[in-house]
Amino acid sequence: MIMLEIKGLNVAYDKVQVLWDVSFNINEGEIVTLLGSNGAGKSTTVKTIQGLLKSRSGSIRFMDKSIGGLPAYKVVAAGISLVPEGREIFPKMSVLENLILGAYVPRARAKDLRDESLDWVFKLFPKLEERKKQLAGTMSGGEQQMLAIARALMSKPKLLMLDEPSLGLAPVLVLQVFDIIKKLNEEGVTILLVEQNVHHALGLSDRAYVLEKGRTILEGKGFELLSDKYVKEAYLGM
Ligand SMILES: Nc1ncnc2c1ncn2[C@@H]1O[C@H](COP(=O)(O)OP(=O)(O)OP(=O)(O)O)[C@@H](O)[C@H]1O
Ligand SMILES: [Mg+2]
Q: Does residue 86 line the site of ligand 1, with CB under 6 A?
């Protein structure tokens, strides 16, 4: 079943158009990766889906409802959550306060639901429970990335979008991030992943789309794209 359907999305910053007729689908239960070089429009795409940017034209449907043009909090309420590029946690707030902010939407806000979400994310990230009183800004880069993911999970998303979650992390932490993504997917969370770490991302993904200069130019199964001549040359340096 198609969970998210993007059709003919056009997005501009003022007069500069950066997405051109972007179209793709995500089926329920999949891990889908969006590949593309710097400036291709990956972050713009996920921000538009989340309702942080407005599109000029095109449609965004999520679970059979149009969500295009809705403000971000309503998109979160509908079941989509974004782990933004660069994490954007609140450094002067504690780990726990950051997590609670992630649960502000109606479907997750009631105290018993919130406690249930906290139990869930603390089980996934035991370290965050140990550190719940620590100021988020004093955590290591890897811990902050885990916190950003955990915060996005506090709204109980059906679709989790992660914008370059492994960026700047040491190899062992990169593996941990990919392990968590896999685990979340096994627990029923559908995943849209933006990654530069093409090898890992494609290995984990059911399917992937390649975005180039704001256009979707290639689509395929994860393992097929790993051996695709164009992908190898452009993204794997082969
Ligand atoms: N706030 C903004 N105002 C104007 N132009 C922007 C803005 N944000 C992004 N752009 C431009 O839009 C294009 C797409 O940017 P975007 O951030 O979506 O790319 P990206 O694929 O996420 O790149 P990266 O891999 O570097 O994160 C780029 O040309 C960028 O310069
Ligand atoms: Mg980006």
A: no
Domains of the chain: 2-79+157-235 (3.40.50.300), 89-155 (no CATH)
Residue pair 209/34 in contact by the 8 Å Cβ criterion: yes
Q: Please work out whether the CB of residue 81 comes within 6 Å of at least one atom of ligand 1.
A: no
Question: According to the model, what pLDDT value does residue 102 have?
Answer: 86
Tokens matching residue 90: 């609140």
238 has pLDDT over 90: no
Contact between 192 and 43 under an 8 Å Cβ cutoff? The reply is no
Which of 94-103, 155-164, 198-207, 229-238 holds the top average pLDDT?
155-164
Could you tell me which of 106, 195, 81, 87 has the C-alpha nearest to residue 147?
A: 87
**Atom 14 in ligand 1: which residue has the minimum CA distance?**
41
* 163-202 confidence digits (pLDDT tens): 999 998 888 889 999 999 999 999 999 999 999 888 889 9
Distance (angstroms) between ligand 2 centre and the Cα of 40 equals 8
Beta bridge partners of 65: 62
The model's pLDDT over 30-78, given as tens digits with 9 standing for 90+, comes to 999 999 989 999 999 999 999 999 999 999 999 999 999 999 999 999 9
Q: Which ligand is nearest to the CA of 42?
A: 1
The one-letter amino acid code at 157 reads P
Residue 8's φ and ψ, nearest 5 degrees, are 55, 45
> What's the farthest any 2 CA atoms get from each other in the chain?
52
Nearest atom of ligand 1 to the alpha carbon of 45: 18
- Ligand with an atom nearest the CA of residue 34: 1
Model confidence, pTM = 0.94
